[in-house]
Amino acid sequence: MAVRTRTRWPALPVLPDAATDAVVASGLLPELAHAFGGPFHFLLPDAFTANLRALQGTLEAAGVDGFIYYAKKANKAAVFVEQAAAHGAGLDIASVAELREALGHGIRGEHLVVTGPAKNPALLRLAVTHSALIAVDALDELDAVIAIASAGHIRPARVLLRVLPPLQPHSRFGMTDGELTTALERCRQAGEALRTEGFSFHLSGYALQPRADLAARLVELCLKARVMGLEAGRISIGGGLPVSYTDADSWRAFLETQRPAHYHAGKSFDSGDFYPYHSPESGAHALAALLRARPQHAHGKTLAKILTNAGVELLLEPGRALLDRAGATVFTVQGTKDRDGHQLLTVNGTSLSLSEQWFGSEYLPDPLLIPLVPLNPATAPGVFPASVGAATCLESDMLTWRKIAFPQRPRPGDLLLYPNTAGYQMDSNESPFHDLPLPPKVVVDRIDRPRPRWRLDRHFT
């Protein structure tokens, strides 16, 4: 059902990505779809490495001593852990299984940072045993770490004290000023059983200035802790470096144009609930802007200058920013229906493999149609709007509520490629619902060849 009208269908094209384009052009994807008989993800480890090197280079260019931990929760794949180990990064983990995976794929214990609230006692014991850095979230957790470290372990426990952000006083992460005062005294009393290496915070959102302001406050806390005889030479500012999926004009046009009529069943979304798919500063550029920022009450000094003057190391825990353009997700169209002037596609998977619905939102970058039969150049151009539903019995299980304006009519057997899904989308919400198998992860490299090389990811579980 073609729609040849002047209707302006909102679109969100992704930024150019030569590596994904090369995989599509190679013809590999239809063969993988046939081999696996279901949806799959493909991973591009070279993109991860390039993002990591860009962040490391930004720290070096600013003269800031720093270390990057890959936030493993953003993607379970082993290949990204392997890349982190090979290129001088650590891992941000929050479970025994993640710790096991990290060690098994080459991350040294001292290059782990353990985050998350109310950590499992087994996780704390392993963290102390392997000299991992522990972001302590509460006083009782600090007491547990001190008890473990005082029970005869060869090495002292390494801790950061997590601070409750003043601008987010209802956050469930971090300690109040009063609790921090108590924690510092307990750290001092613990003596050689504990190494208090500094402070950390978890801050929601992607604004850079609040991060700079809070980072400067943590530097001040380090200086005060040193007066007490504590080491206090590192601060962790967590993740939160934004990723740009599209250009500024496309993002602005999308927000101005989209309305319920552009979605199946008149579905509506509050634009404030969408991830900011464009950011003027993203990835390594966002880190550079953060280091240039001038925190409040810092007498005009940049964050970089504050860090270097105090001799404080900056720790970062990015996930999405390291996974920018590091993978995509492919579904096969199983069936089609015509509904009220648009198609309703059903693919061979579920929205649980596009986890933005976890936030009551929608993954907005336009999927790419890879047809079984390419469009005939002589065919008159048309617009074929279609929404994308899942192969489940749930009315709400939609991969894409929005009516995507495809250049030709999607048919059963065609592929839909959702771009740039490595950051959180692939497996944050995965489930073998209906006993459907979880989509496998395929590592693709040597894309400079006419035929890219691929293998299954080595994730243990």
Q: Any chance you could write out the topology, listing elements then pairs?
A:
Elements: H1 18-26, H2 28-36, E1 40-43, H3 45-61, E2 66-71, H4 78-86, E3 90-93, H5 96-104, E4 112-114, H6 121-129, E5 133-136, H7 139-149, E6 157-163, H8 177-190, E7 194-201, H9 208-227, E8 234-236, H10 248-257, H11 283-292, H12 303-310, E9 313-316, E10 327-339, E11 342-347, E12 368-370, E13 384-389, E14 398-406, E15 415-418, E16 441-445, E17 453-456
Parallel strand pairs: 1-16, 2-3, 2-9, 3-4, 4-5, 5-6, 6-7, 7-8, 8-9, 11-13
Antiparallel strand pairs: 1-10, 10-11, 10-15, 12-15, 13-14, 16-17
Helix pairs in contact: 3-4, 3-11, 6-7, 7-8, 9-11, 9-12
Molecular structure report:
The protein has 461 residues and is α/β, with parallel strands linked by helices. It has 2 domains: 18-44 and 325-456, Lyase, Ornithine Decarboxylase, Chain A, domain 1 (Beta Barrel), CATH 2.40.37; 46-244 and 279-322, TIM Barrel. The chain is built from 12 helices and 17 strands. Strands 1, 10, 11, 12, 13, 14, 15, 16 and 17 form a 9-stranded mixed β-sheet that branches. It has an 8-stranded parallel beta barrel with strand order 2-3-4-5-6-7-8-9, surrounded by 7 helices. Helix 9 packs across helix 11 (283-292). The longest helix is centred in the middle third of the chain and has 20 residues, at 208-227. The relative contact order is 0.19.
